[in-house]
Amino acid sequence: METNKLFDEYYDKVLINGGTTCCPGCGGPLFWRMILEILGSNTILYGGGPCAGCATRNIKLPKFGLHFSFVADAASGIVAALAAKGRDDVLVVSGAGDGGTGDISFGKVSAAAERNENMIQICIDNEAYMNTGIQKSGLTPFGAWTTTTPLGKEANKKEIPMIIAQHKVPYVATNSVAYPRDLRATLEKAKGIKGFRYIHNVMPCPTGWRFNPAKSIEVTKLMVDTWVWPLYEVENGVLKLNVKPKQKPVEDYLKSQNRFRHLTDDQIQWIQGNVDEKRDMLLEYDGKKIII
Fold it and tell me: Given this model, what pLDDT does residue 12 score?
């Protein structure tokens, strides 16, 4: 009985109910549970980001959603409505997946960033259109299998965080559920800033990435530790690397998922070269102003 009481007290306090319709191993429920603890109850959520956003169906906050072609656009309307009522105490958060953020609604996200709307825009990036059949998106990485790229995607992943930073917004950050302290720190900072803030989280997807669901955090940590997904922030134009891991071979990350199993040794080495080039650039500009 005492254990049940502890669980009841916990779920009375948290802003998301137990249970989820997400796939086993999805990082969505973990991600939203962590960030809602930081954002607090005085928050309005627009969207949520399919399909990891399925977890947001259970949140205990005001939540709105139109078609995901309205990413950032509809949230801008909520911001305007709050401003018209003289409310500056409510945090507006807009969430979307990689397809909504980087493809279908990128123009609307860009426009909201240009206007410096007072909101947090979050990209929940599982690197494909996972909830509609695992089709490739603009944020699918080079070489990855999807149902529309059965031999591997031939183009590179879009660098959306850097593109948004070029809009001269106050804050941009990448994070990962495999590094929860960094994730919490970036959200805490974003919460305390006014204007357009952009958070980009790559979300493990065992179904689309084709790995054992029990390995979600392990695979996602490899993504950071190989520098495939570097963790950094750009605040007022200044780049800061938040995590500088001792680099592991990119091959370790690629071979942890069957979506990359068709890659040749030459392709793996090519990917390693691209990752190393990006790592060196980030290390060179760490602590420096990159947006003019």
Answer: 63
